[in-house]
């Protein structure tokens, strides 16, 4: 029985939506009466979890009102998941949100035509470990990035890259050695659309690449014609390549990369073969591995060139056994063993057994643990116009770097003395002994008959 005072008294139930939309109070509720469940409130980014009174969920059916009370809304954070698919199609099983809990949410693979999915990452650079599941205890929104790789398993796959510029910003993996015999090579990347991807050779070889006088190329001749920002090449071997070309234009020539138009990273890569290039009217840059590095910050490590070079120009000629022209950066644990023949019919010739020329100050260039063995033959067309170095024409002091190259210099039809002494001459045997005792065995195999280091 309710006494007379309580029977006539009424109460108010107020609602605190805690950031949600306003819910009007309910008044005039008699003692032991029931509040009416209101429409659920709404709060951006949250899911409504009920009304609570003193940490207990309120039951509008079971609980009676015996005093003025305030019910407080409880919310569960909705964690959003967004997917950067980079041209792919998401799997329908991948959720776009979850409520924070103790559960584990597993991820499923998306698809992309012609590519292989290489995992989800939490950053656009694909640094760190792959993400296969999500801990739902997180209360922060999540963004995932799909990594895609184009795999080369045969000649057709490789030519697909050459003929389709959409692949020139991709990550590419060589899965088998490829023989290009009988195929006229057209470069990957050009001045308008440079190659800005990453090419991982996985230790496989691309054999018998040829660029000859029948090519219809622009002035950049190499496996990669022009590289751009973020380009990286690793563990790639280009073997028995041949570049034989004559042009009336300026040229950049390198068997791996002709023109690195932005800083480039090259590691554990090698080239072998021959280059014969002639410009009948202009100047040129030529290197066994890379023709020209145009920007600062280059990193070229654990790589070598065994390329015989014949470079002839009407104008200035800049040629190096490994790199034609370097605009600063790091060159470490690299070597060149090919013979160099460089000719300019009218102008200056700059030749280095390793690097033809370094065009920036010493402070931003590091060269260490490098050597050059191939002989250098220079013919220049005017007096005092032949400069050379057994390693590099000008630039930084080298560390643990040597040459045994012999130089034969002819200027204006007369043999001349050495124009540059930026190297230390030691015998080939001393270089072999140095490599056996000092080079990093994790990166190099010293079991060759010659005794020179070779990539695994």
Automatic annotation (TrEMBL):
Pfam (any one): Flg_new
Subcellular localization(s) per the UniProt record: Cell envelope
GO cellular component: a single term: cell envelope
Primary location: other
Entries under InterPro entries matching the protein: InlB-like_B-rpt, Listeria/Bacterioides_rpt_sf
NCBIfam families associated with the record: List_Bact_rpt
The name this protein goes by in its record: InlB B-repeat-containing protein
Species name: Candidatus Caccopulliclostridium gallistercoris
Lineage of source species: Bacteria, Bacillati, Bacillota, Clostridia, Candidatus Caccopulliclostridium
């Amino acid at each position: 029985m309710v006494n007379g005072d309580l029977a006539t008294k009424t109460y108010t139930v107020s609602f605190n939506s805690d950031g949600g939309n306003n819910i009007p109070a309910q008044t005039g509720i008699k003692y032991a009466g029931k509040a009416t469940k209101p429409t659920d409130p709404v709060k951006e980014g949250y899911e409504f979890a009920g009304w609570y009174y003193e940490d207990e969920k309120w039951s509008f059916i079971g609980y009676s009102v015996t005093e003025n009370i305030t019910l407080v809304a409880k919310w569960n954070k909705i964690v959003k998941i967004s997917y950067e698919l980079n041209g792919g199609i998401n799997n329908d099983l991948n959720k776009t949100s979850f409520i924070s809990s103790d559960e584990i949410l597993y991820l499923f693979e998306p698809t992309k035509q012609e590519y292989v999915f290489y995992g989800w990452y939490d950053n656009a650079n694909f640094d760190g470990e792959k993400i296969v599941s999500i801990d739902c205890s997180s209360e922060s929104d999540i963004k995932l990035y799909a990594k895609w790789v184009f795999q080369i398993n045969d000649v057709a796959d490789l030519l697909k890259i050459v003929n389709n510029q959409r692949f020139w910003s991709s990550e590419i993996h060589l899965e088998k050695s490829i023989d290009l015999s009988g195929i006229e090579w057209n470069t990957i990347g050009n001045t308008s659309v440079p190659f800005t991807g990453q090419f991982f050779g996985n230790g496989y070889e691309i054999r018998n690449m040829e660029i000859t006088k029948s090519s219809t190329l622009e002035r950049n001749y190499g496996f990669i014609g022009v590289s751009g920002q973020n380009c990286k090449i690793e563990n790639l071997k280009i073997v028995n390549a041949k570049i034989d070309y004559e042009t009336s234009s300026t040229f950049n020539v390198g068997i791996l990369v002709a023109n690195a138009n932005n800083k480039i990273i090259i590691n554990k890569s090698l080239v072998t073969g021959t280059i014969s290039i002639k410009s009948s009217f202009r100047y040129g840059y030529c290197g066994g591995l890379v023709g020209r590095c145009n920007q600062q910050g280059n990193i070229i490590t654990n790589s070598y060139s065994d390329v015989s070079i014949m470079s002839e120009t009407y104008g200035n000629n800049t040629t190096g056994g490994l790199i034609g022209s370097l605009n600063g950066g790091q060159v470490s644990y690299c070597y060149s063993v090919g013979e160099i023949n460089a000719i300019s019919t009218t102008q200056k010739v700059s030749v280095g057994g390793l690097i033809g020329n370094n065009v920036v100050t010493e402070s931003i260039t590091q060269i260490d643990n490098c050597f050059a063995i191939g002989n250098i033959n220079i013919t220049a067309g005017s007096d005092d116009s032949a400069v050379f170095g057994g390693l590099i024409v000008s630039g930084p002091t080298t560390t643990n770097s040597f040459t045994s190259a012999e130089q034969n210099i002819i200027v204006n039809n007369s043999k001349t003395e050495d124009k540059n002494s930026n190297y230390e001459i030691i015998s080939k045997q001393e270089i072999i002994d140095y490599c056996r005792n000092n080079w990093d065995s994790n990166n190099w195999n010293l079991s060759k008959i010659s005794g020179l280091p070779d990539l695994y």
